[in-house]
Write a structure and sequence with these properties.
The chain is mostly helical and 154 residues long. The protein has 5 helices and no strands. It is elongated, with a radius of gyration of 17 Å.
Length: 154
Amino acid sequence: MFKPDHAGVKIPPPICFFAFLLVGILLDSAWIGGHFAATNLTAIGSVIALTSLICLVLAAQKHKNAGTNIEPWKPTTKIISDGAYKYSRNPIYVAMAAVYVGLAVAADSWVALLLLPICLLVIRFHVITREEAYLEDKFGKEYLDYKARVRRWL
């Protein structure tokens, strides 16, 4: 039987994060009323979102430099274990979650913040579980050793 060389992820993680954030903002936020949030929330949220976006770009750049795909529906050609990947097996998802938090705070959307744990459960069970099984199957001991050394999130 033919086995595809990818994790079989069906939900693109950026779309998952965006969808939950959008629902939260549409249900409750300063933005939906056409206003900015309080200055302190806008400032704090903006700093969190921008800092996290920089971390996301740096982690994604690691994939490009290593010559492996970032998209979980394409083949992974190597295990990246340096940079942010020394501390988290999923620094891009951590960064996406932090960007989400920053935007939710900047929008003064507590509903969006309450939806984040549900979003993270979707990512955990519908994305990461598939990726980990694929990487264990493809890279065997190399991935299992990496997995034993480095936490899933932080």
